[in-house]
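JOB MANIFEST
job_type = single_chain_structure
chain_count = 1
residues = 274
[input]
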Amino acid sequence: MPGRRDDPVRGDVRSGRSGPHHEAGPANPPILRPRRCPRHPVLVIPSIDLQDGRSRVVYWPGASTGVGAPTDRPEVIADRFSGLGARMVHLVDFDGARSGTPANLEAVGRVASRVASPIQLAGGLEGPDNIRLAFAAGATRVVLAMGVVDQPQVLRECVAVAGDWLAVGLDPRPERFSAFGWRRDRVPTLPELVGELADAGVARFVLTHGGTAPDLDLLGSIVRLVNADVLVAGGVADLAGIRRLRDAGVHGVILGEVLLSGAIDFPAALEAAA
């Protein structure tokens, strides 16, 4: 089993709760924190969608000029980004997200064998046993789907297994947020939901925007609300978008096809995030 990778920014243990494979006690309530100091660079996190053991998007940043060779092998893609300075890799088990159980753990293992940086896995992980499978395969971070927010017992069990290495993915787009199948009398606001989850021990959030530009004011309010890492996925089309998210104080930016296709140059993205 691969050894645990340290957190690329905060170190191995942040709040006293246990990491992967260890039971964790109840979390402390969230505390207010100031906006992130600009001298701390934002993580630029390459994202690879896994389907049938391969990357759904072919990596070929030199496609427009015919430079380099394309590949859909996730371990090769991750290794190339790691060589360019990536401090974390985000994997999405596309098949697992549809089936509700991890389906690309062999591919996760291949990535873990090639890179030393933390691996964050999403897709089909809603449940403590699924998280254990992910950690055993080599993942060191897990992201649960939004459906877990109305399953408090499942969430508690997942936090007990993953501790600070657990994130919850939320879709903050107003039309998606309001249309979510809530199992409660009143639809919460996003800040209310984030505060509730932080009280339950969630230390990381992935806010997914699809192709919609993030609401920077809303992001800034979330960053100031809780002592938790806020990552943004999607909604970034250029370097200026990365700079705006950096200034909003987010902890990291997850980029998929725009990096794999070369639409955004990874070293330039790192500079924009610094």
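[summary]
The longest helix spans residues 152-162.
The chain has one domain: 43-273.
exit_status = 0
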